[in-house]
Amino acid sequence: MSILRRRKGTETKKTSDSEPEYEEFKEKSNGLGSRRLRRRRRRRRGSCVDGCCWFIGCICSIWWFLLFLYNAMPASFPQYVTEAITGPLPDPPGVKLAKEGLRAKHPVVFVPGIVTGGLELWEGHQCAEGLFRKRLWGGTFGELYKRPLCWVEHMSLDNETGLDPSGIRIRPVSGLVAADYFAPGYFVWAVLIANLARIGYEEKNMYMAAYDWRISFQNTEVRDQTLSRIKSNIELMVASSGGKKVVIIPHSMGVLYFLHFMKWVEAPAPMGGGGGSDWCAKHLKAVMNIGGPFLGVPKAVSGLFSAEAKDIAAARSMAPSFLDSEMFNFQTLQHVMRMTRTWDSTMSMIPKGGETIWGGLDWSPEEGYECNEKKPKNNSTQAAESDRTRNSVNATSVKYGRIISFGKHVADFHSSEIERIDFRDALKGKSHANSTCRDVWTEYHDMGIGGVKAVADYKVYTTGSVLDLLHFVAPKLMKRGSAHFSYGIADDLDDKKYEHYKYWSNPLETKLPNAPGMEIFSMYGVGIPTERAYVYKLSPAGDCYIPFQIDSSAEGGNENPCLKGGVFHVDGDETVPILSAGYMCVKGWRGKTRFNPSGIRTFVREYNHAPPANLLQGRGTQSGAHVDIMGNFALIEDVIRVAAGAAGEDLGGDQVYSGIFKWSERIKLKL
User: What is the pLDDT of residues 603-625, one digit of tens each?
Assistant: First the structure.
């Protein structure tokens, strides 16, 4: 027993003696364990990053492999597969017309629209080191992904002058490459240029009138002398071709830009080009406007109001944290708004003519339009007329004149049922400090809660009141814009005030040139739902949010199929409603009117949209979409025939599939 006690005592003593050592060992073990745990966590974290990198690497590898196969395959392979599926493809227009004996005759000038022309860096800040004469707009947009904040800084203009910020010079790319492709594989003018080359055109008788599409039209002359360059090049082309007049082909906003040019070139210096009242008659054969927003586009309003259009609104509703909040410390939509609100050219496309053209609270020219209307195939005019007659019986009543409505129910009410509170005298006030938004300042930060609420309480805006709305929410933008653009209807075009350049791009406030031998075409796509009016709501509360957004949950269903995703749609080319593209050539300029005193002949050429039959057809050869129409074979054939000497009557005169004539008759405008 004594031995046992001694042993127990010994064990107890040993245990008590070893307690400090045990505790030390335990601490070391815990430290080792925690280090092991940290290593495991790092491995897990690393494996997650590695997995993401492997996934991205696999996607890139597959993409480059497919790209290699595409470039390695014979050029005829896609055509062979397409013909095997759909049958023999028609000859491109250039090949077809060359076989008919057509040859290059009149020089051709292209006038690109907004965003489709390339812009390159000539001077920049330190963050743009190494980018001299590299494209910041167009091409691969590589710098947007590498250094987005630097890219936004350089693409923005001065918020006071609308010109270059200090230390930054971005200029338009010159030559046909300026706008042949917007990005690799995405053509703009390339298909038309290639087809013109088939009948003998080359760079000496084709000219791309590239300009900086961000700045106001008159400022392109002030800063870059672009209008003078266009004038000189047209004069040179006429002289070098033996006196043959030029065919002008503007697209999108380029249509408004060339309207401005025609007034500028006739006006005396220093405001104008000093060419005299007969310059256009001597130098221009035809102006073939493609997708022209003559009277503006509703999409410009939503873009300026909330930096949105239909697609952005859908993305904003699905991923609000990415577009609205401070995710990644980069408030995407706020940066976009701050940048685009320095681009004065966007204000050229605000709807013109007010309620006289676009409708009021309870009427619009497009009343009775049926959104489920089926467009005919193969451009059949007879089938189109039959469809319109059949669908007009069940037409849905949409109040398109309400370009902005706060709430779906408000868009449907009669105007007498809507209680409105005028926003114009509402008090503004900063709602927070700029620092909370990491210096992403927009003019909404100066409105305050009271100003935001006042805008929503007004409930409904027409094209008449929307100008006051934009002056209220974006005073700096509209102050600059008011110096360069106007949106009204002239009472007396002989009034001296209309000699100012701010009126030159508005066809309702200026006269066409004295050129009775010239022809004007309006060529545009139809058969695609196009944005016409919007249902808005207040954004969720947040310091850095843009306070208004399109209510993408607003749907019309079977009762009102024109309303989808908070947007009321009408017929058009997906960007420009046919009312804007067609009215001036259908009625405003048709015959001798006060807007067309010399009686320049006008023609409307509509192209019914037909999407590509399969992916191998790319963007298709019968598309009526705003940009894709530049590859439409029927349109290209019309352009080539006129460039080769044909007149509008030789093309068959008007080609119409929409209700543009009927809608134009509803507009009561003094002509």
Answer: 999 999 998 876 666 788 899 99
